Amino acid sequence: VLLVALVTVAAFAAVNFSGRLDVTPTLTYPVSGNMTFSIGVSGALNIEASNEDETTGFYVSIYPKLTTAATVVSTPSGTTTALTSASWAWGYWGYVWQKLYTSDSFTVTLQAGNLGRGWPGASGANFSWIIDPPYFYMYESNAAVGLKFDITSGDLSDSLRVFVKPDASKMINVDVFNSLSFGFLSTGILVQKLLDATSGLPPFGLSASVDLAKALAIEGATLKGFGYFYIKPTASPILQSYLVGADLGIEKLSASVAFDNTNKLGIAVKTTALAPVTVGADIVIPDITNITDFQLAGYASWKTGLIGHTLSLKWVENTATVAWRLRVTF
What we know:
Low-confidence stretches: 1-7
Mean pLDDT: 92
Radius of gyration: 24 Å
Number of helices: 2
Oligomer: single chain
Strand content: over 45%
């Protein structure tokens, strides 16, 4: 058994382990109702390996999650906190890959497994996600077999990925995702279920970002505009959904603003002026036609030894929530 293990390990030139563990005590207090206390435990273990010449390899992520909940109940001797639920969940995500051709400027890679394509919640870079900001979601990571074509030439880089996946009605279908970067401009396009388009253009997603600070040679500052769009040529209106916004920053102050097609507006601000503590706040207005309905979040984050701490307070739908996330990454 030991010999088999040694031979197995020797087959990999590089094996990298990474992951995280989160423990989050949370206290929730609705304006009308009982205060509740819960502790969430979640984490992930990522394993990435390749052979000696880095032509084949794999990636896998395994993530267990424990969630408990409790509530304040009355007893003859007063009140106490009672556990109401506890649950475990397990998941995994991964793929294998093999480089079919490689040169200084062009690489072709075969991939199979859970292959991500698209945008799994794109928004401004400075939102804390303690409350949900406006975001754009067009993403899939179901099992597929794909070819990845990577081209680099100076400031130009392009990655074209073609995915073949199972389809209940056609046996197979095809997704295509392309991302291109050139200087201060980055673009992306995603077409899903390409074989469903029997006439005319299929629905597709577009992304674009412009780094104006880089374009204007502004040093020590961030000024980036971005947009994400879902377009369905056969529908009315053609533009089905969108997200637009900007990331701003100078010295120790950063901010983001984002707006989507549902009239949802989000603004985030954070500063490292109190380093090593980072302090920030988010405000989200779900519908700008009703500015009296809003959500707020504030937080402070810092690190002690191996543990990263985030202490947060949020106000959503007449409910205040205080959470203390302790995170270890490796």
